[in-house]
Every structure is written in structure tokens, then in C-alpha cells.
Amino acid sequence: MSQISEFVERYIAARDVSDLYAKRLTWTSDRLATFAQSDSLEDCFNEILVNRFLSSWPSETSPRTVRSYRSDVLALWNAAADLDLVPYPVPRRIKRPKCPALVIDCFTVEEAKAILAQSHKCKPYPMKTGVCRRVYWPAVIALAWDTGLRRGDVWNFRKSWIRDDGSARVIQQKTGQSVTVRLHPSTIELLNRIPFDQATRWPGGANCPRFCKQFKDIARSAGVFRGTFKWLRRASGSYVELVQPGAGGKHLGHSSPQVFGQHYDARLTSAAAPMPPTLREESKAAPVVEFNPDEFAFL
């Protein structure tokens, strides 16, 4: 098993990885083999070639994208070394792109209200489940806003999980950890308009692009020309953090404050940030000087 393509196939088959991650590993390994002009593990997994591979991407490529390629290559390299196919890599010798901090943005309350209002005006086409789009999308948007759940967890949410006090316990697909969420009575009312326990299930299954496009169309029709469905989760956590500092990460089910910091719009609380005392007295407003055209007659 000296060919990287064969090794990656066996690596994926022996592990419980998602289809998306499997495709990413295959894509990265194919690009690495193409760059090395060889399918041999020894030719692909060496420090000089991998560093050249990571440096070969155009400048417009996001550093975070290049860093993900680095992670994929190292994961495969370590797995090959475990089988004594190649020597172990030394991570500190592998180029690590510097990633500037991201400015996290999210929907404002006004934008979210506008999107929800527009969802009630969708074209009344029935979906594959027989549910009208005007009924489905308001329930999905309100559920995502209240709970801050990821898209897949929104699709799998069941009305039978809702307790009398409006709370529900959800096992997150991504982490496998449980999180307790709460729903407003108006959101429960929207969910009850759909005669299924799994009311917000997306009928297209894994057809995510169609789901994202429909949401984008609703947002643009509402006059909101920015953001994606993911911004509802960001906004939910950010506004919970604004109301009660320290609660946003727990609301989203994050494992640590550091993880929450990558999804939190800190600008919401910038006005409340403490400041040192001023070094000069607050000056009074300067008097308004009227414009006199005669003063500029010489120009």
C-alpha cells in the first residue's frame, strides 16, 4: 500500500468520518499527489514538498483554507506513519499560515424580524412533505432564533421534546453533547401548525444548497442583503450574551468560552465596555459659524 490514493480510501473506510470530511480528505490528497507529480506516499509525505504545497496557493486563498489543508495532510501523514509506511512528521517544521482574527457579524433583531415577516409571504408552494412553504419557513426561522441550534439540529428537532415550560433537551449532532434550549410560546405555535412531530425536517435531505438558497431569497426579499442561515445561530448566542454575560456559550452548547468567542458578535456589548477616566474636561459644543461668502471672494 504505497499509493496515496489507495491509502486514503482505506483510511476513510476504517474510520467513522462524515461524507463531507471524506470528500475533503480525498480532494486534498489528490491535489497533493498532483503537486508532487507522484502517487507515492514517500514522495508526497516529506517536509520540503508539503511546505511547498502549502505555499503554492494563490494569495487570494484564505489562510484558514490553507490551514485546513495542512490539518488534512498531517492527519493522513500521521496515519501512514502509524503503519510504518513513512516516518512521522514534525509539525513545528510544517508551514502554519497565520490567520487574522475574524470580525464576527450577525443579524440584528430588526433584520431577523423582517426575515420572519417575509417568510410568511413566501409563495404558497407545497413541499415534498405536503407542508406549505409559508408554514414551514416561519417555524424554521423562529426555532433557529430561539434555540441557536445548528442547521442539522433544527432539521432533526421534534415537537415531542418540548416540555410544559417551553424547554427542550437536544443532543447536538456535531458534538454529541446535550444542550437545553427554550422556545417562546409564539414559536411553539408556529411549530404546531405543522402536523408532524419532526416539523422542521428538510424534505431535501442533505440538499443543503437548495435550503440555503431559499433562505437567502427570503432574506433578500425582506431587504436584508447580508448573512446566511448560520447568522441566526450567531445572533441568538450574541443577544443572549448581551442580556446575561457568560450565558451565550452555554446557550449554544459550546464546550468553552474560547469556542464561543469564534461565534460571538462582541460589538453588541462594546458600548458597555469599561473605560478609563478622561484626561481632559469635556468641552462644550463649539458655536455654529455661519458661512460668509464674502470671506472667500478672493478665490
UniProtKB/TrEMBL annotation:
Has keyword Ubl conjugation? no
Please give the SUPFAM superfamilies that the UniProt record associates with this protein.
DNA breaking-rejoining enzymes
Annotated keywords: DNA recombination
Q: Name one GO biological process term.
A: DNA integration
The UniProt entry, under InterPro entries, shows: DNA_brk_join_enz, Integrase-like_cat_sf
At the top level, the lineage of the source is Bacteria
**Aminoacyl-tRNA synthetase recorded as keyword:** no
Give one GO molecular function term.
Answer: DNA binding
The protein, known as: Site-specific tyrosine recombinase XerC
